Amino acid sequence: MSIKKKLLLVAGLAVLMASFVMAEPHAEAEAVKAEAVEAEIEEDVAAEPEPQAVVQSEPEPQSAPVQVSAPVVVSVPEKLAAKFEVTPYGSASYRYRGRIWTASADDNSATTWDHINMLSWFVGLRAKVDDHLSLQFQIGNDWTAGENVSWSMNNTAARRILDNNMYVHLAYARWNPGYMYIDAGVIPLSSNGTLDLLERSLNTGSYNEAVYQGWPAQTNNRLTALRLGVPLLNEGVKLSAEALVSAIDQRTQRVSSFNGIGVNDSLANPASFLVMLNLPVTAGALKVTPEFTAVVNRNYNKALEQGDHEILGGLSAGYKISDAVSVSLFGGYGAIGNENSRAGSYGGTVRSDDRDRGDSATVYNSVGIQFGVGTSIKAGPGTFAFDFRFGNSVDDINEARNTATNTNNIYIDPRYTWNIHPKFTIAPRWRIYISTYDDSQTVTMRMENRPEIVIGGSF
């Protein structure tokens, strides 16, 4: 297929997805392991956030899945049997963590030290039906973040599987005839600068601590979505275009009768949709991925029939200097307000309203940025990795709100993964989280030191 035809195909896909997202119905509305960015989160995330590592540069201790060579007893058409392959894989790890908290105000400070034990596990299956069709399924706990271990978490009081926080990580099919590919279901999805910001915005109402939490810790790098991709260049410089769509808020619209004669359309209340466009470019040892993300009608007011869109842009890049050394960087920017809808608030998670509040509505303008750099170096029997991230979040609607909400986040993450066995690793790590606030705030700085060691194996 020529480049011109491929570009036309991408444009057609984009128009199709845009028309699907922007339509306002008036009827009732309703890889492989996912790439592990070392990030974690506690059950008490609302009170004390859990960070993630910079730019997916070093996965949690685990190895690639083992190819199964024994025959697979599955009923398949004879013409496909020769190509049908199944690959099971899995991982389990145990982690000890210390958390040293320090808060400062003027010349005063206070420090505490917590001890935490955590478990991470998953198991999955990848099936290759033929050269064009493959499927993948994976279940486990919050393995990127980890799950607290305690007496009660061993189900001694009530043996319920939900106590172990097990859920579906992946469940999707990929059709790839070569000139395009389609992923549908619970698909693997990594951030290239925007999704870390989006996750904090949707779950907390601001971009604060996106460099701590982010996409991997909260989602295990997955999303229920439809993704369409088209390779544009395959020789020398490689270029692809990927478009993705997923529902955020499934709002309801109805039509109502009018005096028993005919119908009267109800007020518009469209669902909000996530749309994304990635343009990964690979040239030798360099890979660059621009990422554009939007949530259409992220905030919406049914009474006003007005909405506000969240817009985010980002970029990630990685370069392999040699077989032993690689570097990476990323950046992202996001903004969302409620000037049109007057729905929601800064730091709140309500995104819809059905009343015209007039001048009593609080208007906000949430803005967030983040950037980071990282490196991975093979040293001795393992790999040393280092990541640094900086983020800023603020309600920039006016000077007073800017002063009250302006927050800087700094994240530092050195770690070493020791491969004492091809599929068994020991990984010591020491992370530092620093948050600084305007001098007018009661607490001007918070810092957490987090030493830990992760021991685990995989198959």
Please name the defining characteristics of this protein.
459 residues; mainly beta; 5 helices; 19-stranded mixed beta sheet
Q: If you had to describe this structure to a student in words, what would you say it looks like?
A:
The chain has helices at 3-22, 78-81, 195-204, 214-219, 399-405, and strands spanning 85-105, 108-128, 133-140, 147-148, 167-175, 181-188, 222-233, 238-249, 255-257, 263-265, 272-278, 281-283, 286-301, 306-320, 325-337, 352-353, 365-379, 382-395, 407-421, 424-437, 445-458. With 459 residues, it is mainly β. The protein has a 19-stranded mixed β-sheet that branches. Strands 9-10 form a two-stranded antiparallel ribbon. The protein starts with a helix and ends with a strand.
Briefly say what this structure is.
The protein is 10% helix and 49% strand.
Write the layout of secondary structure elements.
Blueprint (H helix, E strand, L loop, with lengths): L2 H20 L55 H4 L3 E21 L2 E21 L4 E8 L6 E2 L18 E9 L5 E8 L6 H10 L9 H6 L2 E12 L4 E12 L5 E3 L5 E3 L6 E7 L2 E3 L2 E16 L4 E15 L4 E13 L14 E2 L11 E15 L2 E14 L3 H7 L1 E15 L2 E14 L7 E14 L1
Parallel strand pairs: 13-16
Antiparallel strand pairs: 1-2, 1-21, 2-3, 2-4, 3-5, 5-6, 6-7, 7-8, 8-11, 8-12, 9-10, 11-13, 12-13, 13-14, 14-15, 15-17, 17-18, 18-19, 19-20, 20-21
